[in-house]
Amino acid sequence: MDPQKQDQFDATNIFGVRRPLSTKEEIFHRELERRSFDIIRIKNPDNQDFFAEWDKRYWKVPAQGTLDVPRYVAIKYCKDKAVDTINKLNQKMHDQEMEERNKKGFTAFESKWHEEQATYTQPRYPKTNDKELLTKLYSEYWVGLVYEYGKDQPQQVMNQATEELDMTPIELKIIKEMEGRRVDMGTPAPVQSEMTPGAFSEPTKATQPPLYVSKADLAKEVTIEDAKPTKSKK
Fold this sequence. Notes:
Elements lengths: L2 H13 L7 H14 L2 E6 L5 E5 L2 E5 L3 E6 H34 L7 H7 L12 H11 E6 L22 H9 L36 H6 L3 H4 L7
Antiparallel strand pairs: 1-4, 1-5, 2-3
Helix pairs in contact: 3-5
């Protein structure tokens, strides 16, 4: 097992902490809960009333009659009714075999355990986990769906069983819409506008602030106008 999953498993067992359900798991559980309240029609094919029990509450299914109940009650009824029917069949077969043994003069079994081993545990006796037999019995008890719970909702209401909450950031949604854009490499790239000369050039010597200038250097820095000889006055 993955160490990370093992740590989560151990924490769940030790502290009783359950990890948060994912969106799909929550939707799945909500759908199971909704379906449990569907109304199902069940039938009692016997000549005796049968009481379906759930949480110490009872629903009377009349003999040779039907009853509309929630799905969870219908499932419980089919299970209990099938077990009751199979147990009655076993009891009837057992009683018949014991009666035949007595007529034939066979000695009684040493104990109840030996008797049960020779009867109830034999393959000829129906079992409560026989899928083929249970399918046949359930088809007699389960009539069908009467009302589907939780489907009477306005058209504009979002069906959470089919849609999930989208947590994608808005910027990623916009970028995803633009992912189909492609640059045409056959088209020449646009010509960049010329920059103004000297706009980003380094400052000239004249504009640079002097750090330190000696007197000799200052004497040499004369302009052309300064170098022209002056006219003498007559």
